[in-house]
Amino acid sequence: MQIRTATISDLDAVANVEAECFPPAEAATRESFAERLKCYGNHFWLMFDGDKLISFVDGFVTDEPDLTDAMYEDAAMHNENGKWQMIFGVNTIPSYRKHGYAGELIQKLIDDSKAQGRKGVVLTCKDKLVNYYAKFGFVNEGVSNSVHGGVVWYQMRLTF
Ligand SMILES: CC(C)(COP(=O)(O)OP(=O)(O)OC[C@H]1O[C@@H](n2cnc3c(N)ncnc32)[C@H](O)[C@@H]1OP(=O)(O)O)[C@@H](O)C(=O)NCCC(=O)NCCS
């Protein structure tokens, strides 16, 4: 498997993987990914099996300590010199799950964020994934303000 960051030329592959992994109410749209890739393609970590995109993680960088719904849609809020690396999405296509691929990408994001001098990483997730992220050192800060997709999200933080 190869890992690299993204450019706008990855738009179709990224949008297709997202649509395979999330229900429509929660999936980011192709338009949203186009904006994200233009503003912070260097904060997407993509994993390929040959030419096939099988998993990715993405999120911008900001001085804001808490992850808000506005961030998903407003790529211009990205601040390349910000303190916190956010995680907006973690996706592995169904046929490649449970091989540690998302885990490898999360670890790479953590390592790169440390090397870039960030303060830490922040994400939101559903309750069923709280234990998964805890394995990487993320601490559950409780229910977030997010109303994304009409479900309950927990905010988790890894402080370096
Ligand atoms: C959540 C998601 C990204 C995980 O992707 P993944 O590549 O399967 O993740 P990993 O392989 O790193 O870990 C998944 C599980 O497989 C286990 N695993 C890892 N390697 C394994 C292996 N070789 N054999 C068996 N199990 C393994 C992990 O321990 C983990 O187990 P757990 O759920 O009990 O903690 C994927 O299921 C997905 O895309 N889901 C839909 C979208 C989503 O909900 N994203 C998260 C938003 S918060």
Task: Kindly describe this structure.
- The chain is built from five helices and nine strands.
- 32% of the residues are buried.
- The strands form two sheets. Strands 4-5-7-9-8 form a five-stranded mixed beta sheet. Strands 1-2-3-6 form a four-stranded antiparallel beta sheet, sandwiched between helices.
- The protein has one domain: Gcn5-related N-acetyltransferase (GNAT) (Aminopeptidase, 3-Layer(aba) Sandwich), CATH 3.40.630.30.
- The chain has helices at 11-21, 30-40, 69-73, 101-115, 130-134; strands at 2-4, 44-49, 52-58, 61-62, 84-87, 89-92, 120-125, 139-143, 154-159.
- It is globular, with a radius of gyration of 14 Å.
- Bound molecules: coenzyme A (COA).
- Coenzyme A binds next to β6 and α4.
Structural class: alpha+beta
Number of domains: 1
**Alpha-carbon distance between the termini?**
27 Å
Looking at the chains present, what oligomeric state does this protein adopt?
Answer: single chain
The tally of helices reads 5
Which second-level CATH architecture applies? 3-Layer(aba) Sandwich
Placed side by side, the strands forming the largest sheet appear as 4-5-7-9-8
For CATH, the homologous superfamily is named as Gcn5-related N-acetyltransferase (GNAT)
Query: Which runs of at least 5 residues are low in confidence (pLDDT < 50)?
Result: none
